[in-house]
Sequence to fold (57 residues):
Amino acid sequence: MKKFIDEVIAEMKKVSWATKKELANYTVVVGIAVAIVCVLIWFCDTIFARLFHIILR
Fold:
């Protein structure tokens, strides 16, 4: 088990971590992408709800 932990620590030292600026940029990009997907889902849901309402009326 100790060997495994030592290997994990060694591998974690090799990881290239994002800077604060990169992390902030990625967070903004993800937020925008989530907002766009939410709007698309809302739009499709509204259209389908109206179509089903017209069909079932």
In short: The CA atoms of residues 5 and 42 lie 47 Å apart. The chain has a mean pLDDT of 96. The helical segments are 2-14, 20-56. The chain is about 90% helix and 0% strand.
